[in-house]
Amino acid sequence: MHASPVAANLATPADPLVASDHALPLAVLLQRSPARWQLLLAWLLSLAACLWLGVVQLYGGWYGYSVHFGELDFVISIYPPLTIATLWVLWFGYAWGASLAYLSTLLVAYLSGLPPGWALLFACSNPLGLLVMSLVYRHVKVRYVPSSLPAMLFFVTICFISAVSSATGSFIWSYSNKLSAMGAFAVWQGWWSGNFLQTVLTCGPLLLLGTPAVLRWREQRWPQRAATAPAQRWVGLVAVFALCGVLGFLWLSFWLADRSVAAQVGDSAQAWQQRAMLYRDSAMAVYWVLSVLMLALVFLGYRFFRQRTLQLQQAAQSVAFERDWALQRQQEAEHAHQALQTLNRELAVRMAEVEQLQQQLQEQARRDPLTGLYNRRYLHERLPVELQHASHLGQSLCLVLIDLDHFKAVNDQYGHAMGDAVLKALATLFAGRLRAADFAVRYGGEEFCLVLPGCDIVGAAACVAELQQAYAGCRVAGDSNALQGLHFSAGIASYPAHGSDEEALLREADSALYQAKAAGRNCVRYRG
């Protein structure tokens, strides 16, 4: 069944949450296009900026900042290359941004004095967080531009999960530098909080300002593919991963806080106060983070619920419309079927009338209009069939040619009306005296032909004699007078004795009729 025009109007409208952007493969660098050099130059400049900012961050001490927010004290670390790498991941794809993050982090690790093996592993921390962000946006297909409240809340949530994932590098740093539990806690807290705040506060505005121009530039050189709907299994996996990230964050927060408190020495009031402050700061950080996440997740859940509800409503409307449309088509088909049946009945009646008319025309074409007898054309159609039938049955057949005696004198003396009456009288006589298998033909003028199937020459002669006697006794009335004592001459030919085809029989019967005329008329002749 085709889709109806109205059904197309029921299609789900584009959701501003769902992004149609896609990653730009590295293979575009192999294309022969001037744009690839522009893209490569932009990436190299970004790499130079990331390396320089990484060195500045390391030697400038942009880490371990103590921030006071009300009664809450926590540590953040700033890493500028992360902003550039995140923008490349979201604008062009994971490979472009992850390579920037890895190379800049590797340089920082090397300059910090980490062993080569640990440096190579440590450099994977920020690409790990970016991988989480890329996978979420790729498979859940939520627009990364925080241009609406739902998109912004989703962006904040993913930034937090990405920050917690990349903060695993803090354990490598703490282990390599042999930091205490208190130091490891500070590094971990500074890493994820700085990563989170930096991504939200710097990438968010830059995405709002720069995304339209970047996507326009991309679209002109590498047109986008059509967006596909997010797979439900990926949405579920992302939800599970987000839950695991939050649970991991909670566990690490309290575990590191416990380790830090346990590392505190002394039983003085000041020591216990420091322990309490550490617990409070850890708990408050968890509280604020969970509050923001809970708000974001609740709002996003509500939005996704509304979106799915709208899709279900639209699907139900589409199904209802398709049902109504199908019922309407069915009713139209039934009406058309009924109309077709009516038309077929009318056509059948018309065809029957046409067939009847054709039969009437055929019958008229075979009949003599004056006497109602068959005409010469019918004789030529029917006689070969009768001869074939007689041959098949092994029977005889007689053909009789009759000519009215002195018919011209009747026309001359009494008029053509009387002549027509004489012809009709003989035709009426044939209809009453012949068998059902016999048929009479007006051969032409005052000549008639009789075909007598299954009759021999003796029977045919007796039949003709009976007809002559009956004809002589007929009284034919005209307008002012009447005729009586009419007679005719006849010649008989028999199949197969006198011929085996129509032409031979007609020739033999005509010869016998000529002999009857020569013998004085009012007689019957045949060859014995």
Automatic annotation (TrEMBL):
Q: Where is the GGDEF domain?
A: 395-528
Q: Which SUPFAM superfamilies match?
A: Nucleotide cyclase
Q: Which CDD domains match?
A: GGDEF (cd01949)
Q: Would you tell me the Gene Ontology cellular component terms?
A: plasma membrane
Q: What class of enzyme is it?
A: transferase
Question: What transmembrane ranges does the database entry give?
Answer: 40-62, 74-97, 117-137, 149-176, 196-215, 235-257, 285-305
Which Gene Ontology molecular function entries are recorded, alphabetically? diguanylate cyclase activity
The alphabetized list of GO BP terms reads: cell adhesion involved in single-species biofilm formation; negative regulation of bacterial-type flagellum-dependent cell motility
Give the Enzyme Commission number.
2.7.7.65
Top-level taxon in the UniProt lineage: Bacteria
Q: Which InterPro entries match?
A: Diguanylate_Cyclase, GGDEF_dom, Nucleotide_cyclase, Rev_trsase/Diguanyl_cyclase
Keywords of the record:
Coiled coil, Membrane, Transmembrane, Transmembrane helix
Q: Which residues form a coiled coil?
A: 340-367
The reaction(s) catalysed by this protein are: 2 GTP = 3',3'-c-di-GMP + 2 diphosphate
Is Membrane among this UniProt entry's keywords?
yes
Cross-referenced Pfam families? GGDEF (PF00990)
Note the NCBIfam families from the entry: GGDEF
Protein name (record): diguanylate cyclase
Q: Name the lineage.
A: Bacteria, Pseudomonadati, Pseudomonadota, Betaproteobacteria, Neisseriales
